[in-house]
Give the backbone structure.
Amino acid sequence: MTDLEPATRDAVAELLLTLADDEFVLGFWDSEWTGIAPMLEEDVATSSIAQDEIGHARAWFELLAELTDDDPDRIAFGRAPEAYRHAALMNHPRTDWAFTVARRFLYETADAVRLEALAGSSHAGIAGLATKMRREETYHLLHWNAWMRRLAEGGPDTRTRLKDALARLWSDAESVFSPLAGEPALLAGGILPESLADLRGRWIERVDAELGSLGLARPTSEAGPPSDGRTARTDDFRWLWGEFTSVARSEAGATW
Amino acid sequence: MADRVWEVFQQAAEGDPMVHGGSVSAPDEELALHYAREFYGRRQESVRLWVVPRDAILELDDPDLLQPPFDRSHKRPGGYVIKHKLEAARQRAGTSGTDGGGEGIE
């Protein structure tokens, strides 16, 4: 990996940071359901999935740290809130169960498309991790699709909450495919086998198919993925950042 | 939510017997499988799970049928218990050997 051109190396580092931060931040938001999910079994399932995501984030952070000769914990916990590169979809707080299910569905569908592409990456480290993660993410997607159906068919209240959540999240969900500065370099080297615009198209097809089967219409936005989709931060995220870095910040440089 | 209870059986390795692991509560078949996986399969401890609705299980626990009052030891694969008869016969014959007598026929 040290033989990468500096421009390519920076592009790979940017891509890895987006992959890691998406999983990391979503994992923290969803871990908030531990102890308060709608039923005990779901409490365990949601918490377990949230933990899977933190595990995936760890794997991406380690690959990034190897590339940039850094420390994975420093990257995970040692950055200012503005230096995180997760999609704006993960700027929102946990909110209610329908909101969590809607966000999960939008994200897992996008992540599935992205991991499928990355499994064919020319970068062996990325391809290897994407291939392993796809096996776990397949189950995540099944689980959240099952909940989409339960809420869509659970009566007027749950259906309305689900529709409202989808409408509120849609434009920020697009930001999973917001352009990256290094995308041309990633595409040229086959590190990213397909453009983010193509991946977004495939994501929308799948979202349409799933929502169509539930009799729900996809919210639309004229704009598409916003250019600041991975840099805009919110007070909700700054609060979460304060929480998940509080222990690491309590003794800077400590060995845990 | 009208949850059903599902009994979960797990197999630790291919060829092993299915062993009852415990139960989960779930509103439908799909979530029952997901929860069974979370509780009995996410740590690589199982290669197969069977998830069965508890109300599909036929139960028999009638002591008249399962614990009949008469000695039915002759119906067991080992047949009659003859340990004590053997011991008495050996004593009459004056041979020791209370050890090892009647093995396999208890």
